[in-house]
Fold:
Amino acid sequence: MDYFLELFLGGLTRGSIYALIALGYTMVYGIVQLINFAHGEIYMIGAFTALIVASVLTIFGLNSAAILVIATAAAIVYSSAYGYTVEKIAYKPLRNAPRLSPLISAIGMSIFLQNYVLLAQTSDFLPFPRLIPEFAFMEPVSHIFSSAELVIVVTTMVVMVLLTVFIKFTNIGKAMRATAQDKTMALLIGIDVDRVISVTFIIGSSLAALGGVLIANHIGQINFYIGFIAGIKAFTAAVLGGIGSIPGAVLGALILGWTESFATGYVSSDYEDVFAFALLVLILIFRPAGLLGKSETKKV
Amino acid sequence: MENILEVKGLTMDFGGLRAVDSVDLYVKPKEIVALIGPNGAGKTTFFNCVTGIYTPTKGDILVNSNRGGVRINGFKPNRVTERGLARTFQNIRLFPNMTVLENVMIGKHCRLSAKIFGALFRDKKTRAEELKAAQECYVILEKLGLEKTCDELASNLPYGDQRKLEIARALATEPKMLLLDEPAAGMNPQETVDLTHLIRMIRDTEQIAILLIEHDMKLVMNLSERIYVMDHGQKIADGTPVEIRNNPEVIKAYLGEDIDA
Structure:
């Protein structure tokens, strides 16, 4: 039973991280119908920023909780700036182009950012300091659920609630929903659609950066390539849940997390990805729009 | 400039096709003006140029907003809306997955000052502003008789009410002038009569000008103070309903030429 619980909680942790990244994919898709393949790289840049800031702050001898907060904040700001700029440079000029063009531009951006970090930093794996402290009250269960995992799950849940409130009740959230439903009409009733798109990219990038810092802290090492794998997985989660749907992304991420975790635990860690992507294939065959997605009806 | 909208020599080309050919038009404050013409005459293209969806090839569009007279050619649609022009569409374009009240609140968006900071931290000023906006939107819904459906999803409203809701949303942007693209399309005769009263009521209570495209001649003749007629992209006539009714050019455009004549 303990083993099952451990796998379940492990899957929950994985799923939480995937959810943070998948939200960026799904929100951007909802608003501009673009798969932002550079999103995984934003996550990786977040992790690198946090590592650099944390290393500097360690020299000054701050305590690890303070370092964690400052490093995360820095990662969020820096990644948001990247997300914002990528949209302005690579996607905005192509907004009225055929849908394939921004997609190719996104893949180009992804490759560019990976190689930029590779050149500017290093190709080696860098150790990431463990900044999340071990809580005393977690001691009895620490063999199946660590403090770091608890922080990841709780942070993700808080962020989800905040995001839901933001989108449901604030003006800019309403403007985002309106833009997703009908961009021209949104413009006509006075919504600055360019600004809404920028805000969407900033929010998506912030969430990805947060995910990047949390996972790097949990796994303990990063390199320039982590964004690719995480990006593909999060993208899978978003498609699983129905791309464009926010609750769908979270649901898809959790299902993916559990699938991987149980596959690793009961079959073999070699089969982790096999199960994850087999699930994707099955969903695409039987529910092409994803679990919570609405199938698009095209007028002919 | 005393006209609320003044269009001079507006021309719109799509490649080799001239959809609108040097059209002049003006609307005075609190006036109801109709734009009529056979299908494909360029009426909707004209609307799209005025509201910023298309940038006209030639000509001037001048708006007398509370910030003075401005040339708005090539303004993005949201800037045009800020200058006090609001429009509805021929086919209904509500936000289907939002409630009735939310649809109207979205119209208020451009009049709210709240920025991201306020939205995130929900300070007193933001909350007060949102509450005031919600109340104002409710008043608009009351005026159009939609207040009972406030929390319904827009897509669940009956057709006639969806049309009204589009007008409510346009009113929420606090326009100086309302552009209605075939507001009576798909309505039965009774609904059309109601709509006529509604449009007149809006003009009287809100003190705004209305420019409408419509094919229902009964509505046009009952409602409008002046009428413009377009055919093949050109303005062929303008004047009062009586003048238009007796204008041979207009009759020709609608019915074709008599073979004997």
